[in-house]
Structure formats: structure tokens, C-alpha cells
Amino acid sequence: MEAIMLGHLSETIDRCLNRSDFFDEINRFFESSSLKGETPAINLYQEDDNTVAVVELPGFKKDDINVEVKGTQFRVYGKRELNYPDQSSARLLERNAVKFDRTIKLNNEVDHEKITAEYKDGILKVVLPTKESEKAKQILIS
Amino acid sequence: MTEKNLQENNAEQTSENSVALNFFRPAADILETEKDLLLYLDMPGVSKERVEIKLEKDILSIEGRINDQKEERLKPLYREFRTGNYKRSFTLSKAIDQKKIKAKLEEGMLVVTLPKSPDQKPKQILVN
Fold this sequence. Notes:
The complex is a heterodimer. Chain A is of the alpha+beta class. Helix content of chain A is about 15%, strand content about 35%. Chain A has 2 helices and 8 strands, in the order ααββββββββ. Chain A has helices at about 5-15, 20-30, and strands at about 40-45, 50-55, 65-70, 75-80, 90-95, 100-105, 115-120, 125-130. In chain A, a hairpin with a 2-residue loop joins β7 and β8. The relative contact order of chain A is 0.19. Chain B is mainly β. In chain B, the strands form 2 sheets. In chain B, strands 1, 2, 5, 6 and 8 form a 5-stranded mixed sheet that branches. Chain B has a 4-stranded antiparallel sheet with strand order 3-4-10-9, with no helix packed on it. In chain B, a hairpin with a 2-residue loop joins β5 (about 45-55) and β6. At the A-B interface, β1, β2 and β5 of A face β3, β4 and β7 of B.
């Protein structure tokens, strides 16, 4: 959480006001990167002119994950069911069935045509290329 | 036939704590069916080649390593989770048939099947 930025801080606070999310946040600070609460964690990275969103979604089915981008709003939602054998009894339960819907604000508008997403090893990675008009341009000084 | 068949190996974890290791403890579910104990572990980012399951003196240790080279050239903008490797171990009782343990990885979720020894399975006793 050390890399948290001011713009996102308000979002985090908003989420903290929701009690169950609050405990997810606590878990995330102290426990682990694995999915403990109901809300999957998202990391954002910069790679050249692209923003890369990485979401931890272990044990999901690809068809149960949805990604939407509208303006600067990046939305990811979906569900994970626990498909355990019918005739079984639980000895330890730490994992949850998950239903989530998250939206994060991106710093730049995105070129919708060029978005790519892949889901592998329980990690969703979405590459969000910055719109051409929003890229910083070098101006020649004459 | 209770949870004693598969118990978390806490002793090792205590000794682990004294060393600063970048390991996470993956969330786990254990289910018991008539024939097996099923262990489910969330290890996002771990591929099949990077899982190591060892069985030594009734201790089942599971380690999953992520490929963090991919992320090194990415500049973090906003971070909600840390990435790291996973490690957790369990003590097996004699009721587990150690030769028949199987594991598979499904999208970052490891499923370990631990069959019960034949003599541990419930038997129908005929009443004469």
C-alpha cells in the first residue's frame, strides 16, 4: 500500500466505510496477497504508454469474469463458486465464494480498440493503452 | 475420522516467523468425503511448473513460486496486494494413504487429493 496515491486514497476510504470491505482491507494489509475476503485486490502499473491492471482471481472460471472500460472507469466484476463434492464435510474453511463488482478510476482515457485481457494462473491482466490524444508530446522549442 | 487426519503443521510456522521470508500463507479449505480428504489452496500467479509438493515424515509441505520477473519492469501506480511466493505445510495422520496423493492446479487454485487408507474407510458391519 506504500505506493498509494492521493486520488485513490479517497476511493480506499470510501471502501473502508463499507464494513465488510473494511475488514478485507485490514486482511490485505497484514495477511497475504491471496483472496481472503470477498473483494479481489487490484494493482495498477505503468508500462510505457499503457496502464496495466492486475487482479488476483484464483479458482475463477474465465466466463465468470467481466471487464468493462468506460471513459476512465475500469470496472471488473464476477463470481467464484466453490464446487465441492456433494457428499463431503468441511474440516477447514478459509476460502470464500466470491461475488464482486469493482470500479477503479484510471489516470488516463483509454484507447478502447486496443484493450487486451488475459486470465492465466488465477491472475487477470488487462492492458489499457492510453488514448493517443492524452499522451504527453515532446514540443520542439525553436 | 476427523480433522486430525490432516492438521496444519504449526510448529514449522513458528520457526518460519523468525526469518524474514517473502512467503504468504495461502488460504485453505479442507473437505472430507468418504474416500478422500481434499485440500484446496489459493495461489494466484503460480503456474504448474512452479509448485513443489513434498512429503517427508508425515509432513506435507506445499510451496508455490510466482514468476515475478514479469512485473519488475512495470512501474507501480497503485497497489492493493503484494506479490510473493506461497508456503504452507500440514501434518498427515496414518489414516492417509501417502502413496496415492495427487494434485492438480486450476487457475491459481491447487487441489490436493489425499486418499484415506483402505482400513480407515467406513465399513458396513453385518449383523447376524
